[in-house]
Write a structure and sequence with these properties.
The chain is of the alpha/beta class. It is 32% helix and 20% strand. The chain has a single domain, classed as TIM Barrel. The strands form 4 sheets. It has an 8-stranded parallel beta sheet. Strands 5-6-14-11 form a 4-stranded antiparallel beta sheet. It has a two-stranded antiparallel sheet with strand order 1-2. Helix 3 links the parallel strand 7 and strand 8. It starts with a strand and ends in a 15-residue tail after the last helix. Bound molecules: the ligand O=C(O)c1[nH]c(=O)[nH]c(=O)c1I. The site of the ligand O=C(O)c1[nH]c(=O)[nH]c(=O)c1I has 15 residues, from loops.
């Protein structure tokens, strides 16, 4: 079965990635990913100019139907990840970058541009959990401005991580911005921002920062994730690839993301629930579905969701 896929100049043996933030913050976690079968590539935790502790605990809470997180962008600082991705040989990598300001982002990306790194980069425009900071990609003017500044000097392959949108006009507006830039890919969706989980036993919220408001992931966000993959595939230039992220718990969900147009698929919450063995299960389930339907490659069904 041919599960190979391509993102810009980078060939992946399979379509599955870890969602940025999941098991990808430390050297040990990244080494685990490098050794994980059926994981096509590695995405780093979003890296900032300076190291960050992140928000106070509790900052992650598991639910039957998904998860809520308010991590607060904890990371070792971009030099660690930029060094790591230049040394990683086992699997292709995507260096995720975030910033507390556009200036911070520019400073980090200048170093990436001037480094020997030849892999993929992804600008996270959608972290919902940094206290006092907006999800940049909900501001279409600010998004255009930061991309204009980046492409004045950045010539390496770069994509963006988007928050979920919930209005067809917003899909039109973000696509109109992104189509003006030579992006390699869009990664959609980040967590559904600022949800709230309530423990009625204790009559309390379940995460500490921001009064318990946090990003939602897992099974409950699958329909939102599929809608964003589909809507952006319908609107983005063909040369902008799509990484579908959000709500994947089965091979059928991977199939659905690809049917909606995803070139690759990330798995987040389910890795925390099930461990890195989840990639074996999802790959087997996807191959079984492809067998049943007589498909021999992902291109056989990618983007071919039918309307009624
Ligand atoms: O709280 C986080 O660290 C975080 N959490 C998310 O759910 N998405 C993000 O992009 C980030 I940077």
């Amino acid at each position: 079965k041919n599960l190979k896929t391509q993102l810009a100049h980078v060939a992946f043996d399979g379509p599955l990635l870890n969602a940025s933030g999941i098991h990808c913050q430390t050297a040990d976690e990244l080494a685990d990913l490098a050794a994980t079968a059926n994981l096509g590539g590695i995405v780093t935790k979003s890296a900032t100019l300076l190291p960050r502790q992140g928000n106070e605990n509790p900052r992650y809470y598991d639910l039957a139907y998904g998860s809520i997180n308010s991590m607060g962008l904890p990371n070792l600082g971009y030099p660690f990840y930029l060094d790591y991705v230049q040394k990683e040989e086992a699997k292709p990598t995507i260096l995720s970058v975030a910033g507390l300001s556009a200036d911070d982002v520019i400073e980090v990306l200048r170093d990436v541009q001037n480094s020997d790194y030849q892999g993929l980069t992804e600008l996270n425009l959608s972290c919902p959990n940094v206290i006092g900071k907006p999800q940049t990609a909900y501001d279409f003017v600010a998004t255009r401005k930061v991309l204009e500044r980046i492409f004045e000097f950045f010539t390496k392959p770069i994509g963006v991580k988007l928050p979920p949108y919930f209005d067809l006009v917003h899909f039109d507006q973000i696509a109109a911005v992104l189509n003006d830039f030579p992006l390699t890919h869009v990664n959609t969706v980040n967590s559904v921002g600022n949800g709230l989980v309530v423990d009625i036993e204790k009559e309390q919220v379940v995460t500490k920062a921001k009064g318990g408001f946090g990003g939602l992931g897992g099974a409950m966000i699958l329909p939102t994730a599929l809608a964003n993959v589909r809507a952006l595939r319908q609107r983005l230039n063909d040369n902008i690839a799509i990484i579908g992220t959000g709500g994947v718990t089965t091979g059928a969900d991977v199939f659905a993301h690809i049917l909606c147009g995803a070139d690759m698929v990330s798995v987040g919450t389910q890795v925390i629930k099930e461990g890195l063995g989840v990639y074996d299960r999802l790959t087997q389930e996807l191959q079984d579905i492809m067998d049943e339907k007589g498909y021999t490659s992902l291109a056989d069904f990618r983007g071919k969701l039918q309307e009624l």
